[in-house]
Fold this protein.
Amino acid sequence: MITTKPLPDSSIGDFLSGYAPIPGAPDELLDAHGSVRPVWTDLITHLASRSSEQLDAQFARGASYLREAGVFYRQYGDADRSERDWPLSPVPVVISQDEWTEIESGLRQRADLLETVLADLYGDNRLTRDGHLPAMLVAGNPEWLRPMVGLRPASGRYLHFVAFDIGRGADGRWWVLGDRTQAPSGSGYALENRMASTHSFAGFYRNANVVRVSAFFKAFRDGLNRLRKEEDSRVGILTPGPMNDVYFEHAYIARYLGMALLEGEDLTVIDGQLMVRTISGPQPVSVLWRRLDANWADPMELDETSRLGTPGLLSALRAGTVHMVNALGSGVLEARAFMAFLPRLCEVLTGKPLAIPNIATWWCGSEAERAHVLANAGRLMIGPANSLHMPLEPDRETSLGGELRPASAGSLAEWLEASGPQLVGQEAVTLSTTPVWSEGRVVPRPMSIRVFMARTPSGWQVMPGGYGRIAASDADPSAVSLSRGGSVADVWVISDKPVIGESILESGSGEFGRAQSGWLPSRAADNLFWLGRYVERAEGTMRLLRAYHGRINEMSEVSTPLIPSLASYLEARGISTEDGIPDALIGELGAATGSANRLRDRFSIDAWASLADLQKTVERMSKSVDRGDDAAVAMGVLLRKITGFSGLVHDNMYRFAGWRFLSLGRALERAISTVHLLQIFADPIAPEGGLDLCIEIGDSVMTHRRRYSVNINRATVTDLLGLDPLNPRSVASQIEEIVSHINLLPGAGEAGRLSPLAKAALRLSTDISVHTPETLDAKALSTLAAQIYDLSNDLGETYFN
Amino acid sequence: MRYDISLTMTFVYQAAAVNARQIVHLMPADRPGRQRLIAGNLSITPLPTRREDRFDFFGNAETAVALDGAVKEVDIRLQARVEVTGSAFPEGLPTPPDALAAEIAGWRDLGPSSPVHFCAPTMRAPADPAIAAYARDVTATNRSVAGRVEALGLALNRDMTFDPDATTVDTPAAEAFAERRGVCQDFTHIMIAGLRSLGIPAGYVSGFIRTIPPPGQPRLEGADAMHAWVSAWCGPHVGWVEYDPTNATFAGPDHVVVAYGRDYGEVAPVKGSMRTAGGQTSDQAVDVIPLGSSD
């Protein structure tokens, strides 16, 4: 039970002074008489017991958790599609367990109803034939997918994971505002909301009887695993990829549930079976949690312009080899026109009314309803019947009283008459308000709640709270949409009994699923390899630039041929010497970030933050850093940062195949760039100072001093940077590393026989081991370079295709 | 009218393609009252790893092909004997244009030949204000739905120039209309967009047409091409009619139907996907040989 000391009422009174609910809209916190509702008492007492500075400080802990965890979303419509911080409103919305239980039961009824309607829409069409649903509305719905008609899902169910947006209307009842049946997002963010809450309300939360959300995920994951055909087949999450607005959530939830995060191009269909291309060959997938809109899923039979899909996916569905969560085509129910028919369909199909009504909706395709909409236009939102936007997220054509109708449509009456079947009118929404922390005090803001539900062997499980949406202003409920500046809040369901058991997750120690190992998708291997190469390449560029800019001030270019020679070497790599920070360096780091971005589910937050910091630093420096000393110093800073990133990755990454590809990328890049360096600057005709440059770029100045008693000469440099197996930066060391990794990759040696790739690596290793500084001349170096390039190509052909 | 139809399509890939997937809509339709498929064979070389022959939503024969190994060339061959048994001219009690919307709003059938599928704009026949304004102008005086269909088709035939070099398979209908140039596919998409803007359900028909050689010259082998025209729903009494705007005629015994869809995207003869490094070239030859009438 709560052990907060009772406070004099005056402190709560002070805290809530100026909290003025909007007339006509119910408030979550205060009842009609202005008294705090019982379920809020403990939280408000806690908040009122602290100064606004203390509250700011405790809320900052939650915000800083989110920042460090890298929680972000993208906003559609941003020109640069930049990542935005997660806009969490720190004060949770509080709901009693009793009230929540009613919501749960009402939404279970609705989820079952939607399942039945879907089965009919893709089955025998009784609902349209009997006149309960206009056929033209179904046919005109862009999410009603004709290739899915008659195709029963393998599990017999269309819906497995759904969400409902609900709000409390003027009469105090809950209303369904929108059905999310395609691929609802937000459940992963709900977990992060809760994590942030536990940071903001550290001591208080533990005893506040808040029902935990993690059991919901465990039940859902177990349900997905149970759908699998065989034990060795996999469960994957299908994402549109890094450019999606909520890609963070896809990567986060994949990591959290221990499932593979897959893009359409990872998948292929072989003889009717859906497979993932992995470095060990194609592996079966039998369950996909789809976060990709259905129309993009298969360019052969759905949207032919999609580059995100998997050709032949529908064939696999027809063959019954894969469970799609949710079925392709389930998004049809998101059209707002359905709201006009669901109350009646519920009566027809179940004999009972909807336990929780949805917002009143009229389809203007019939005479009587058209007349009603015309007569009540002033309080109705009028717009396209098949819009998939919710009433809270009006599209460009939906407006109060139909004011945004096309100019050509004439008067409202004319518009309704001419285009009635394409239009619906919906009750304009009034939402209840909830307290939001703003500039040192709480103010009321309209809110709605997204309720997530998962089908499990024991029926629909409901996530207890977790995700509320808050409007940016008190006047406009439509502003609950994130794209209109709204924010998000945790939702606490408060039990009247003590809640026991911190889940592993809610105590903050990360994911609970054990990752399925030995199962690296080829695309991920490809990205890891290139990440290794790009990071190493950027590091090499930094060393070259530091050497160049450090020398141009000390020496006169005319008398020192090394400088123009170094400049042309840089130019040949595409790196300009005109700027302190050349664009090419920013580009190399951008390429590294791009590869890493597609691997977010595999990286620690620290490694990701470190790479992002590097990118930001170099972009900032590019505005101010000049040529010469300034640039040389800047390169020093960047070099320390990039080696920090490499350290985080190489020291902390689990030693499975993915790490090997990353290391292979680094070793191959380092080998090739060192060979090139020797080719130019250790050549007998290289300008004076070339040999010193080599050991400086090769980060081996100290070693050279210790290792050789003689002055620097071509033989010592070639030996140290080319052949010395004890120098971790020598070409020979890289090749040794390459061989050891390749030998441990899948298929490297079967039945005692080496694969062609392993043979080529071994040949390279033998070749370099018999060289001496004298034999490693220009010709031998160029042969070596060619062999390394070939090995890189062979690696790609063996594992990335 | 009976025909022997043969078609060969060859796809050549510069670099060997792997995981080639194709969906083929080439087998002529078997539609009672309109056309009878007497015999037909579709063969694919090399032999596919997997082949599924089925009917799509609209009842068209479709063949899904998977070629898992590396291929440099794919040949698709069709041989079919078809009898065109009926025409698609309007017959029956005309429906006034104003009554159509209410008919469709109350329509309860969601099956493949229901008009409800053909009302909304589609990707290759999207709503376009210029086409809509044109369609309104050229049909304003017609008092029946079928009359409007014919009026729009005739007007397009008059105002558009047939020009195989003006457009490609992916040129948007609006662009072809703005240029007033294109091939049968463009004529058809423009007419579909126009009819839908008038509230008349309209779809795409792909098929073959018998070509008549210039007087005094022999028929050239392989010179016939695949063709496209429009199907339009003219109310509950008249039902579906087919109009060929490229030739300014309702579809008759010279029009052999392969597939019905909402636009070209749904009934493209061959839709493909593969992983290949290089480009591809394709070639086709079509023969439609009349066998004389059969009664």
Remarks:
- The radius of gyration of chain B is 19 Å.
